[in-house]
Amino acid sequence: MRLILVFCLLYFVPSVNAEIYKWVDAQGRVHYDDKPPLAGQKQLMDINEESNAVKAIPESRAEKRRKLLDAMDEDRKLKKEQEAKEKKKKAKFLKQCHVARDNLKLYQRSHSVYDLDKDGNRVTLPSSARDQVIANIKKQIKKYCK
Length: 146
Prior knowledge:
Layout: H1 2-12, E1 21-24, E2 30-33, E3 42-46, H2 52-109, E4 113-116, E5 122-125, H3 127-144
Antiparallel strand pairs: 1-2, 1-3, 4-5
Helix pairs in contact: 2-3
């Protein structure tokens, strides 16, 4: 008996598959209704149908997500390149620092500084020139040995 009653209720219940419409009236207000719009009212879309506008939303989100990921990848690449440049610059400065310190020790141990003339002969420079060379090397050490 109960089974027959349930079957009858389900059989005679009106279908819930009603269509929903979205439309704009003359004042520009958007309405949702289960009846199609009257003449003179602009229908925007049938909500139940999969229109291109509804499909475009996930694609647009996916596109935005892809663009964001691409931008993040580009930022990572730029950061890695910048870090590599900084590392290379530090290595270069470290090498120049060692060279400058070695030169300073060399000039401080020597009693005189010489230069070569056009023929390749040594020409001894005055002590003021030695002091000037040492001062220049100290500036290099200050610059490269941070």
